[in-house]
Amino acid sequence: MEIEFVAPSKVEDILGAIAAWSFEGELTPAAADLDRAAGGAVARAISGGRFKGGKGQILELLAPQGLAAQRVIIVGLGAKADLASSAIEAAAAQAYNAAKASGPERLTLLTADGSATAAAQAALGVRLAAYRFDRYRTTEAADKKPSVTTVRVVADDPDSAATAFGPMSALADGVIFARDLVSEPANILYPAEFANRVKALEVLGLAVEILGEPEMEKLGMGSLLGVGQGSRRESQLAVIQWKGADAKSQPVAFVGKGVCFDTGGISIKPAEGMEDMKWDMGGAAAVAGVMHVLAGRKARVNAVGILGLVENMPDGNAQRPGDIVTSMSGQTIEVINTDAEGRLVLADALWYCQDRFKPRFMIDLATLTGAIIIALGNDYAGLFSNNDELATKLLAAGEASGDALWRMPLPAAYEKQIESMAADVKNVGGRPAGSITAALFLQKFINGLPWAHLDIASTAWKKPSAFPTIPDGATGFGVRLLDRLVADNYEA
Q1: Is 343 a catalytic residue?
Q2: What distance in Å separates the CA atoms of residue 364 and residue 354, rounded to the nearest whole number?
Q3: Residues 269, 300, 360, 407: which is the catalytic one?
Q4: What is the pTM of this model?
């Protein structure tokens, strides 16, 4: 997909598909120009139908007289007074989705006001909407593939629009990187390959270390290593650093669960739907994605990303229910259910992160529990935190970025559910409040540091997706959220 920023030209001469926007009850100037050039065809179509310019509404006209374009698309923005950047992104994405398989190779977007900011936001919407994971498809018919290969975004000052798009393009790169990781099958993306792809990000200026099993054994990471001991694939710990601020500046830290495939281990999952467990590394993908963004836009912050990368397989050497492991913290854990493995990975990754880097805060992301889907549905991730200030900033970043969060409680009384008769703690607390007891388990590996846990099992994958900027499949949830958190609160 090629995106160009171009100066205004006569709408009569534009080839391919043209998209313009409408507010409720009022065409934008660019849409009004299209209507005039087409002899009032847009206005007639509106008067004869139900299009009112409401948010998300689409009106399409085929080859209207007076225009060289093959297709005209009008997208509703909703009330003019309520216009937000998210509406611009969504409208551009809807225009692309309407045009992408219609035949024309070029789509021209006529923005609402021609500003550099609106043009850049529209381009971001298109980049995200155009994502496809099709690298393994060899027989797809040509007429099933998107025809649009170039999107031209009209701006009064194309150079300023391109400049404004710079950090947004870096954001799109990070989201797409995360989506690709989540979309890969587990026979391709196992822990060592995940680590290799992260190591390749050093070209952006990131510093990446990869710890193998011998290094983790020396550190005492019995909790993480226990999860992967049934797999022929070696577990890895990826340590990513971005140094964009003064060396003395305390880093922010993100920790991701990277279970590249989760069978459930000895506590094996049902066969139905198990293929989806290739995306049980969505938290690690999000952390890798946000580190990609921070480096790509040269963020003025020091940041650390820690990825616990394992494969949870049933094998003669696999961890058993009833086993007791010793974590890096020294705390012992009774493994009641081997399918509650993500928290075991995070226990050691979190401890390592705070012990080595002494960050301002830690945020972990994990596709941790099915219970969060029952609690919140598919559009909100669960937020658990020991710090009100950090939680408030995350909620604000979620609202601004579109990665929606809902704060959940951490009642101390529920810790009784994870008390063990044989060890310091057990890894599950039963079905009641399953997401909460999982978070309470993780909290035992936090030494009073400001911390938040994001349970993204509900949001890492969407099928079907109701969001125009998110095609079916991997979402990259968390990348925009964390980038916005850093940009709004922690850059020098």
Answers
A1: yes
A2: 12
A3: 269
A4: 0.96
